[in-house]
């Protein structure tokens, strides 16, 4: 668990507010429109998930799909609109990348339509020939 002022990031699945996550991903994100709740629940069960909270209200989320040895996929990253502009998304990504169970993995991938500049801050580069897929590779 990480804390910055009134904000907390936690990997405790029991704290996740599935209704909030599903509402955003299924109804407001461009990448998960219409995703069924059951599919989201199964994805969360099989991922390392990060919830972002203020006053016990979930305001952000991301998950890491990984083998915990070499590879990870960063997915479903969001901060609710009314909380953007406070660098909370950056903190969420930093927390995911630095989590002890996955820090230093050899290869990370993600897909984004519009947040390439955010991910470049952490060393991600566009995969050659792609406008959406990004990779972060260690020298190991």
What sequence of helices (H) and strands (E) makes up the elements? EEHHEEEHEHEE
How large is the count of helical segments?
A: 4
Taken from the alpha-carbon principal axes, the silhouette is globular
Strand numbers in spatial order across the main sheet:
1-2-3-4-5-6-8-7
Radius of gyration: 14 Å
Q: Which consecutive residue ranges, at least 5 long each, have pLDDT under 50?
A: none
Main sheet: strands, sense, barrel? 8 strands, mixed
Mean of residue pLDDT values? 96
Helix content: 25-40%
Cα separation of the termini: 28 Å
Strand content: 25-35%
Strands, total number: 8
Q: State the secondary-structure class.
A: alpha+beta
State the main characteristics.
140 residues, alpha+beta, eight-stranded mixed beta sheet, 8 strands, 25% helix
SSE layout and pairing:
Blueprint (H helix, E strand, L loop, with lengths): L1 E3 L2 E4 L7 H10 L9 H9 L2 E7 L2 E10 L4 E9 L8 H11 L8 E5 L4 H5 L4 E2 L6 E5 L3
